[in-house]
C-alpha cells in the first residue's frame, strides 16, 4: 500500500495540532517523512519501494531486433562527433528527407551533421571540425548518450584534430 | 458497462493521476508501460504492469495494435489514454470498440469532428460560435480575396499543424504570394497535408479555455482556465478561473462551449479553447481538445470534482450526475509546470537520474508527479516532472501560497524550471493578472537583462 495525498493531508492535520515537527514512517513497501518548516508549511518525502512485476502482453511485439553493430573501422586520427545532449539521433531533418551529410561529404565546424531529439526538443549537432565524414557509428533513430560516437570526421590538413563534441546549438523546438 | 479493470495506456504524472482515482474507486489499475518505464513510479503504484513495447513512443505508446493487445491480454474492461500520444486518436477508439473494450474518451466521430482544424471550425460555426475571421485558401486568387476581406496582418496556418507548428505571419499584401507558396509546400512536407487556411492575426490574445463534460445527450461547463503564460506554445502556468474577465464574459464563454458540446452530442471530458482578444474584448473559438488536459487539476481545485472519476463514469455509459447549477466555483487555483529543463540555457532538456524529491504538503497544496528519489527521467518523452497546484481563497492568496510552496519544493539531480516559476510569481505584470500570450517572451527577456546588469 501507499498513502494517497488525502492520507498525507490527514497525517499533517494530526501533526499540526501536536507539537511534533517531524514524522518518519517506514513500512515494508514505502517510507514517508513529513517535516514542519516553521510557519511556511510542511514537506513530504515519499519513497515507494516495491518492484513491479511485469507481465508480457500475449501478442506484444517482440523487442526491437538487435541492430547490427558497426564495424569499428580503422580511422586513425579521425575526430569523433558526439551529441551535445543525450537523445535520439536523426540523420535527416524529417523522415524521407535526404540526410544532412553522408560519408565522403566535406564539413566545416558549423556544418549540421544531424539532430538529436531530447524530450521532444530538437538540438542540431554540429561537426565541430573541418574535414570529411568517413563513417557513421550511430544509426538514424538510435538513442545516443553524450558519450556515444555519432560519426567520425577525418580532419582536413591544418585543422585541429582534437576529439570534439558536436557543438551546443540553440535547441529548436518542434 | 461497469469498469473494474482499467488499462492505462500512458506514462508520467497522468498515469499516476489515473491510478489514484482507480484506487479510490476500487478499480484495478493496469499500467501499460514501455521498456523505459517498467520500474518508474507509475509502475510501482499500479496494481499490475504490462509491457507495451520498446522505449521509442512509436513502438509503444503510439502503437495502436500494442495498446489493444495489452488490453486484451489482461482482459481490461477499458483503456484510459491519458493526454498526448493516442488520446485523441479515432483509430484507437475504433480498435477498442472492435475488441469490445471501452475507450475512455469521446466517440470516434467526435474525435474526427474536432481533430481536423477546418472541420472543428465548421462545427463551431454551426454551433453558433464566433471563429477568427478567415477560412481555407486553395490557391493564390482565393487567398487574395480572403485576405482583402479579413485584412492584414494575418496568419497562414497548416490544417495539419498545431501547437504553433505550421504557422506563418503575413504583414502585408506584398508578402502573401511568397508566404502562401512556402506554407503549402512546408505543410505538405511536414504534415503530409498541403491544406492551409488564413486567419486574422490577433496581436494581443489570451488563451482561455472552458472545461466541459458531456454524456452524449447533456453537457455541463466546469468553469474556465487561463493558459496564456506560454513559451513556444507550451503552457507553463495555468490558473482557474481566468482572471480579470467580466462576469458576462465568463458566462458567454461557458455558453459557447456548451453549445459546441451539445452540437457534437459530446460524451466525455473536453476542453474548448478560446482566444480572447484583449483589444476588442471579444473571444473566438480556436480548437477543441477531446481528452483530459495537463492543467485539469486547477479546475478540480475550484470545483471540488474528480475529473477522472467523472470521465470514467460517462465512459461507462452512465448519465451525468451533475447539473449545471451544482457546479459552484470556489476560490482560485494556480498550476506551475515543473519541467526537467534549464531555463537559463534556452530551456535545455535535462533528462537523467533524480536524486531526491521533497514536496510541499498541506491544505490547498497538491503536487502531481511521477518522480521520487532514484527515478530516472528518460530522454524519449516530454520533460514534465511535476505539477505544483495551489488553491487559495482568491488569486492573491493562491499566488502567495504558491510562492511559499515553491520555496519548500526541491527536486535534485536534474535541472528544473522551479526557479523560473519563482521569478514568474515575483513578476509585477504576471501578479497583476490577465497577461497575453506574448508576455512570457517579454518576461524572459527582461529577466535575462536583469541577470546581466
From TrEMBL, chain A:
Coiled-coil zones: none
Any one Pfam family match given in the protein's UniProt record, by short name: Biotin_lipoyl
Compositionally biased region (Gly residues): 161-174
Entry keywords, A to Z: Biotin, Fatty acid biosynthesis, Fatty acid metabolism, Lipid biosynthesis, Lipid metabolism
GO molecular-function terms, A-Z: acetyl-CoA carboxylase activity
BP GO terms, sorted: fatty acid biosynthetic process
InterPro entries, per the entry: AcCoA_biotinCC, Biotin_Carboxyl_Carrier/Decarb, Biotin_lipoyl, Single_hybrid_motif
UniProt protein name: Biotin carboxyl carrier protein of acetyl-CoA carboxylase
Organism: Prauserella muralis
Lineage: Bacteria, Bacillati, Actinomycetota, Actinomycetes, Pseudonocardiales
Automatic annotation (TrEMBL), chain B:
Residues of the signal peptide: none
Keywords: ATP-binding, Ligase, Nucleotide-binding
InterPro entries per record: ACC_Biotin_Carboxylase, ATP-grasp, BC-like_N, Biotin_carboxylation_dom, Biotin_COase_C, CPAse_ATP-bd, PreATP-grasp_dom_sf, Rudment_hybrid_motif
Pfam families on file: Biotin_carb_C, Biotin_carb_N, CPSase_L_D2
Main EC class the enzyme belongs to: ligase
SUPFAM superfamilies according to UniProt: Glutathione synthetase ATP-binding domain-like (SSF56059), PreATP-grasp domain (SSF52440), Rudiment single hybrid motif (SSF51246)
EC numbers for this chain: 6.3.4.14
Matches recorded under PROSITE patterns: ATP_GRASP (PS50975), BC (PS50979), CPSASE_2 (PS00867)
Catalytic activities: N(6)-biotinyl-L-lysyl-[protein] + hydrogencarbonate + ATP = N(6)-carboxybiotinyl-L-lysyl-[protein] + ADP + phosphate + H(+)
PANTHER family reported in the protein's UniProt record: BIOTIN CARBOXYLASE, CHLOROPLASTIC (PTHR48095:SF2), PYRUVATE CARBOXYLASE SUBUNIT A (PTHR48095)
Function: This protein is a component of the acetyl coenzyme A carboxylase complex; first, biotin carboxylase catalyzes the carboxylation of the carrier protein and then the transcarboxylase transfers the carboxyl group to form malonyl-CoA.
Protein name in the entry: biotin carboxylase
Native source organism of the sequence: Prauserella muralis
Amino acid at each position: 500500500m501507499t498513502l494517497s495525498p488525502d492520507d498525507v493531508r490527514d497525517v499533517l492535520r494530526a501533526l499540526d495540532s501536536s507539537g511534533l515537527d517531524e514524522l518518519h514512517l517506514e513500512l515494508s513497501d514505502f517510507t514517508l517523512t513529513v517535516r514542519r518548516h516553521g510557519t511556511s508549511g510542511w514537506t513530504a518525502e515519499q519513497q515507494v519501494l516495491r518492484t513491479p512485476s511485469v507481465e508480457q502482453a500475449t501478442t506484444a511485439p517482440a523487442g526491437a531486433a538487435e541492430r547490427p553493430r558497426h564495424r569499428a573501422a580503422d580511422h586513425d586520427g579521425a575526430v569523433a562527433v558526439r551529441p551535445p545532449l543525450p537523445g535520439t539521433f536523426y540523420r535527416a531533418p524529417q523522415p524521407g528527407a535526404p540526410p544532412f551529410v553522408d560519408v565522403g561529404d566535406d564539413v566545416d565546424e558549423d556544418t549540421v551533421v544531424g539532430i538529436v531529439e531530447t524530450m521532444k526538443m530538437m538540438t542540431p549537432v554540429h561537426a565541430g571540425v573541418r574535414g570529411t565524414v568517413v563513417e557513421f557509428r550511430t544509426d538514424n533513430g538510435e538513442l545516443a548518450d553524450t558519450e556515444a560516437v555519432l560519426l567520425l570526421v577525418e580532419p582536413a590538413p591544418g585543422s585541429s584534430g582534437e576529439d570534439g563534441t558536436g557543438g551546443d546549438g540553440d535547441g529548436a523546438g518542434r | 458497462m461497469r469498469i473494474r479493470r482499467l488499462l492505462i495506456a500512458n506514462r508520467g504524472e497522468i498515469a499516476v493521476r489515473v491510478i489514484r482515482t482507480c484506487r479510490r474507486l476500487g478499480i484495478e489499475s493496469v499500467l501499460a508501460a514501455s521498456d523505459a518505464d517498467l520500474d518508474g513510479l507509475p509502475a510501482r503504484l499500479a496494481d499490475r504492469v504490462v509491457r507495451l513495447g520498446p522505449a521509442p513512443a512509436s513502438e509503444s505508446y503510439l502503437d495502436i495494435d500494442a495498446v489493444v493487445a495489452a488490453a486484451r491480454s489482461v482482459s481490461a474492461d477499458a483503456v484510459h489514454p491519458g493526454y498526448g500520444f493516442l488520446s485523441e486518436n479515432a483509430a484507437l477508439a475504433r480498435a477498442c470498440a472492435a475488441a469490445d473494450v471501452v475507450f475512455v474518451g469521446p466517440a470516434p466521430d467526435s474525435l474526427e469532428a474536432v481533430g481536423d482544424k477546418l472541420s472543428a471550425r465548421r462545427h463551431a460555426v454551426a454551433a453558433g460560435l464566433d471563429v477568427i475571421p478567415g477560412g481555407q485558401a486553395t490557391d493564390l486568387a482565393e487567398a487574395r480575396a480572403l485576405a482583402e476581406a479579413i485584412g492584414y496582418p494575418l496568419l497562414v496556418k497548416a490544417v495539419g499543424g498545431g501547437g504553433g507548428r505550421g504557422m506563418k505571419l503575413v504583414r502585408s499584401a506584398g508578402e502573401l504570394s511568397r508566404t502562401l507558396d512556402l506554407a503549402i509546400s512546408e505543410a505538405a512536407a511536414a504534415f503530409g497535408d498541403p491544406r492551409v487556411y488564413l486567419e486574422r492575426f490577433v496581436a494581443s490574445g489570451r488563451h482561455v479555455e472552458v472545461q466541459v463534460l458531456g454524456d452524449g445527450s447533456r453537457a455541463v461547463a466546469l468553469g474556465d482556465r487561463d493558459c496564456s503564460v506560454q513559451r513556444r506554445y507550451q503552457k507553463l502556468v495555468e490558473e482557474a478561473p481566468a482572471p480579470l474577465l467580466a462576469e458576462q464574459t465568463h458566462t458567454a464563454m461557458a455558453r459557447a462551449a456548451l453549445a459546441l458540446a451539445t452540437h457534437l452530442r459530446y460524451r466525455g471530458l473536453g476542453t474548448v479553447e478560446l482566444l480572447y482578444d484583449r483589444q476588442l474584448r471579444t473571444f473566438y473559438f480556436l480548437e477543441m481538445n477531446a481528452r483530459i488536459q495537463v492543467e485539469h487539476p486547477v479546475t478540480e481545485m475550484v470545483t471540488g470534482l474528480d475529473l477522472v472519476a467523472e470521465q470514467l463514469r460517462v465512459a461507462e455509459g452512465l448519465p451525468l450526475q451533475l447539473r449545471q447549477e451544482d457546479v459552484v466555483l470556489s476560490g482560485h487555483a494556480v498550476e506551475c509546470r515543473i519541467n526537467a529543463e534549464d531555463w537559463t540555457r534556452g530551456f535545455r532538456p535535462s533528462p537523467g537520474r533524480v536524486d531526491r524529491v521533497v514536496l510541499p504538503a498541506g491544505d490547498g497544496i497538491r503536487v502531481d508527479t511521477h518522480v521520487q528519489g532514484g527515478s530516472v527521467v528518460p530522454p524519449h518523452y516530454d520533460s514534465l516532472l511535476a505539477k505544483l497546484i495551489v488553491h487559495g481563497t482568491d488569486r492573491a492568496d493562491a499566488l502567495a501560497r504558491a510562492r511559499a510552496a515553491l520555496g519548500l519544493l526541491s527536486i535534485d539531480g536534474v535541472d528544473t524550471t522551479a526557479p523560473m516559476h519563482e521569478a514568474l510569481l515575483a513578476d509585477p505584470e504576471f501578479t497583476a493578472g490577465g497577461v497575453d500570450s506574448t508576455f512570457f517572451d517579454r518576461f524572459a527577456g527582461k529577466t535575462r537583462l536583469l541577470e546581466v546588469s
